[in-house]
Amino acid sequence: MVSRIDRKQVVDTALRLLNEVGLDGLTLRRIAKELNVQAPALYWHFKNKQELLDEMATEIFRRMTEPLVHPGSTTLGDTWQDALYASCRALRTALLGYRDGGKVFSGTRMTDESYAAPLDNLLNRFVAAGFTLGEAARGWWTAYNFTIGQVIEEQSVHPDPGAPGFRDPAYDLEGREQRLGARYPLAARAGREMFGDLGRNFEAGLRILVAGIEATASGGGSRRDGARD
């Protein structure tokens, strides 16, 4: 028996529904209903929800990295710092474009090799600057995981990508200060730093990461030339 829907249709529909129902509400049954097929038809393409999530994450990554694939691309800039900033910013923007995008991406695996070319281009920037491959890989892996974690936290505060101004009431800053202020004044005021301007916090975190990579790499001081934010 051959399914009358293809793998791409399932993934595109799942990504569209994700913004409507979130990760918890995204079920194979719901996707099948949207495609006007019976749920078993989806198992022709995906054995379970995790396999579908893996493909969804891969498709998000494909869409994000398409401009970065070509070795001559200027999207990553001239230096390893440029490349790291550009890659992390692109990843954050891509994941914030989908409700629960950070959670979808976290813990999934790529289903093809589309990640390899942009990763090679990024690592080349590091190696050309004198980093060992190990230093380059660890630097990127740390920044990559920071970005995904930041997005997950950011989407807890602002869960709806279609309404970026909406803040989950659980993250009401004034209420937090009123509850904690008398006994824990520093923790109370820190809430605005942690949960206020999340875009600013992300950029500050990237700068800390770049400084850490520079400081801990062998001969790190020599690699600071061209640092930008």
TrEMBL record:
GO molecular function terms attached to this record: DNA-binding transcription factor activity; transcription cis-regulatory region binding
InterPro entries in the cross-refs: DNA-bd_HTH_TetR-type_CS, Homeodomain-like_sf, HTH-type_TetR-like_transc_reg, HTH_TetR, Repressor_TetR_C, Tet_transcr_reg_TetR, Tet_transcr_reg_TetR-rel_C_sf
Claim: Repressor is one of the keywords in the record: yes
Keywords: DNA-binding, Repressor, Transcription, Transcription regulation
PROSITE patterns given in the database record: HTH_TETR_1, HTH_TETR_2
Annotated HTH tetR-type domain residues: 4-64
DNA-binding stretch(es), residue numbering of this chain: 27-46
GO biological process, one term: negative regulation of DNA-templated transcription
Keyword Metal-binding tagged: no
Protein name stated in the entry: TetR family transcriptional regulator
Organism of derivation: Streptomyces lydicus
